[in-house]
Amino acid sequence: MNLERAHVLITRTDNIGDVVLTLPLAGYLKQRFPNMRISFLCREYAAPMVRCCKALDAVVAIEQIQDMTEELKLSDIDIIIFGKPDKALAKAAKDAGIRHRVGTSHRWFHWLYCNRLAHFSRVKSDLHEAQLNFKLLEPLGIRHIPSLDEIPALYQLAAPPYHGTPELPRDRFHVVLHPKSNGNGREWPVSHFTALARLLQPHERVRLWVTGSPREGEWLAQHAPELLAQPNVSNVCGKFSLGELTAFIGAADGLIASGTGPLHLSAALGQRTLGLFPPIKPIDPARWGALGKRAQVLCKPTGCGSCSDPQQCACMANITPEDVRDVVVQWEAATFAATAAR
Fold it and tell me: How far apart, in Å, are the Cα atoms of 19 and each of 16, 82, 175, 260, 261?
């Protein structure tokens, strides 16, 4: 198999965070095989963000393809890597005659439709999710798991230009708060976000921007009106497409969230990023922590051990608003000190 000149299609048709943590595969392959052509198949809403990855030669939205088998037949794809198992897509790849079809052996339909199986378990592994994706390269003869320090350079993600709506004046310090997680993972209590906003009011340069989907914005309006009413908070939930959100995060000065897609997006962009996590496997920072040049994590070392309701997680509540406030104040001080020094 001549990997140097192969055309590889990586598929990842699920959530933003999963897509972002798959991008280092493309970055590594392009770094190792500069003449390799790498395409990426994702959902339409994620495509504008994925197109910001400089390691990719093409990005295709799955919703734009009417007949996947026929589309793959007409392509010159040599290798397809199923980042997310998908029975219909795997069958289409086999029916289309894609020569090398790579998938995890932990999905029964891959035994029918894939001819190169990766034998590993995500559930039992101590590796980070971004590292686990590299196990999918082993059937191609590539046995390399990058260190956590190597991952940030492999994203190859750059924010598109921000066109200034809303404006982000540079004499202010703009922090994005993303309170919700679309039902994925444990969330920091919204009451803590409200307390954080109050704690930051004496820091007049700090401006807080609450992001989320339209549905999450409605939820916050109903359940956290005090947060949205704070004088240093602006609510931009539902205002951005994912491409626009990517630009907005890149133009801001930092982002705070629990284990959700925008957290990983911010880290991948090289933005100041603070991830809030419980110490519970497999949703702890060791598996899902933000990996970026300026990313950091807050996680209390002792879990409650009895969380029955993920939305009322004592492990997350143990991370205090003061803990987070201190990080933001450090960010702000370092930023304006650097500005003054120039």
Answer: 5, 12, 24, 12, 9
E strands within 132-290?
173-178, 206-210, 233-235, 254-258, 273-276
The residues near 114 (Cβ < 8 Å, ≥ 6 apart) are 82, 90, 94, 101, 102, 103
Task: Note the pLDDT of residue 293.
Answer: 97
Question: Does 115 map to a domain?
Answer: yes
Determine the 3-state secondary structure of 168 from DSSP. Answer: coil
Does residue 100 share a domain with residue 51?
A: yes
Question: What ranges in 147-260 are assigned the alpha helix state H?
Answer: 151-154, 190-199, 214-223, 225-229, 242-251
pTM equals 0.95
Q: What is the dihedral of CA 4, 43, 16, 143, to 10 degrees?
A: -20
Closest CA relative to residue 158, chosen from 244, 242, 247, 240: 247
Mean pLDDT by 10 residues, the chain (342 residues): 94 96 98 98 97 98 97 97 97 98 96 97 90 97 97 98 91 97 87 98 98 97 98 97 96 96 98 95 93 96 64 86 98 87 68
Joined together, the tokens standing for residue 189 give: 């209590």
Tell me the Ramachandran region of residue 300: left when phi exceeds 0, alpha when psi lies from -120 to 50, beta otherwise: beta
In a domain, 330, yes or no: yes
Q: Would you say how long the chain is, in residues?
A: 342
How many domains would you assign to the chain? 2
Q: Is residue 118 within 8 Å of 102, Cβ to Cβ?
A: yes
Answer yes or no: are the C-beta atoms of 10 and 98 closer than 8 Å: no
Return all residues near 239 (Cβ < 8 A) that are at least 6 apart. none
Domain that holds residue 36: 3-150
Note whether 123 and 236 are same-domain residues. Answer: no
Q: Are 266 and 176 a contacting pair, CB within 8 Å? A: yes
Cis peptide leading into residue 166 (ω within 30°) = yes
Determine how many CB atoms are found less than 10 A away from the CB of residue 107.
18
Same domain assignment for residues 184 and 35? no
- The CATH number of residue 110's host domain is 3.40.50.2000
Does residue 168 belong to any structural domain of this protein? no
